Amino acid sequence: MSTKHNVLWLICWLFCIGSIQAQVPNDNIENRRILELEEIVWSNTTGCTVQRSCVDESLTGKCVEYHNDQWFEFAPDVSGDYFVNISGQTCRDIRGVQLVVLTGRPCEPESYHIISCTSLASQDDIFVPLEGLQAKQTYLLNIDGYLNDQCQFNIAISTKPNGIPASVTPVIPAENSIQNGRVTLQWILPDSVSATEFQILRREATQFKAIACGRKTVMRDSYGKLLKAYTFTHSLPKAGNYLYQIVAYGTANEVPVLIKQEWKTMRSIANSPIWYRLPLEKYPNKAELLIVITDAVTGKLLHKAHITKRKNKPEQETFMVNGWLAAGIKKLRIEVQQQKKGKTVSVFNQFVDLKNLAGF
């Protein structure tokens, strides 16, 4: 960076820093902050605006929507692989920042070529690899608060990664619930990854950052062959949606690799009564009924009762199933026998998926 550019940028910075809500000087592309290799720069998205003539959302698909962006520039002296390291995020929301790296003439979107686009949806320390950068080529970096999040952050261009690999956060699936708070993760070490250990990270959906909850050493069998399959068991502290990430680490010169991401959900069954209504509508008032409820998987008897249907007693037709859910029972078999003078005259059977009943 030239001395003149440094002085001008510092003057602008000192002018703006008096107010937390003030724009950073590199809010506009013409005042973009030049990054030196291994230099750590603090910035924030608060108060930033978008120069609409300088961006084109169609170039990045659904990756980025610009709300409060700012600009940086980097030109490597040597061709090679580099990393954008983003750390120390402190944001109003959970979402964090998003990053676009591109080449082209500043504020001429028709000349842009997108190198990388990353939306974080967290405030973890992350790195974005930039492979095969060319010496003396100018690269533009655009940082924006994801969905207008207001963030402070550090940014650096480095030859070494810092944090965990940036990745798209998967959608929470419908079928991911666990019983009794016990989580079991399973993964395979790919042949393409050289690793010595795995770190297991966990983040609850409303938390800002992931926490480390365990490690696994890469093992070999008695013949010295690498073991590929691994399992990790963990207990959740409370109800919630939890994202687990498995990151493989090797030697100091090897880049960490995200092996797996998986959501696990533990629902607060005890605090939210879940009811099942027996299918008794077709039976007449005063019908003699035998109700038999069993575990559809094991055949274990859960409930058996004789009742005389009464139209003014709706409590006859409902059962709270929380206890069965908590016990790990997944499916019920309901049998209703209509009886007359001690003899069965009709039988009705129904299977009930408790997870669907509970809205899991």
Question: What's the arrangement of secondary structure elements?
Answer:
Blueprint: H1 3-16, E1 33-34, E2 40-44, E3 70-74, E4 80-91, E5 97-103, E6 113-119, E7 126-133, E8 139-145, E9 151-158, E10 164-165, E11 182-188, E12 197-204, E13 211-217, E14 229-235, E15 240-249, E16 257-266, E17 275-277, E18 288-295, E19 301-308, E20 318-320, H2 322-326, E21 331-340, E22 343-353, H3 354-357
Parallel strand pairs: 1-3, 7-10
Antiparallel strand pairs: 2-9, 3-8, 4-7, 4-9, 5-6, 5-8, 11-14, 12-13, 12-15, 15-16, 17-20, 18-19, 18-21, 21-22
Give the radius of gyration: 29 Å
Low-confidence spans: pLDDT under 50, at least 5 residues? Answer: 13-20
List the strand order in the largest sheet: 1-3-8-5-6
Largest sheet: 5 strands, mixed
Provide the residue-averaged pLDDT: 88
Number of helices: 3
Structural class designation: mainly beta
Q: From the 3D structure, determine the CATH topology of the largest domain.
A: Jelly Rolls
CATH architecture of the largest domain: Sandwich
State the shape. Answer: elongated
What's the number of domains? 3
| Helix content range | under 10%
- CATH level 1 class label of the largest domain: Mainly Beta
Keywords: Signal
Protein name: Fibronectin type-III domain-containing protein
Organism: Adhaeribacter terreus
Signal peptide: 1-22
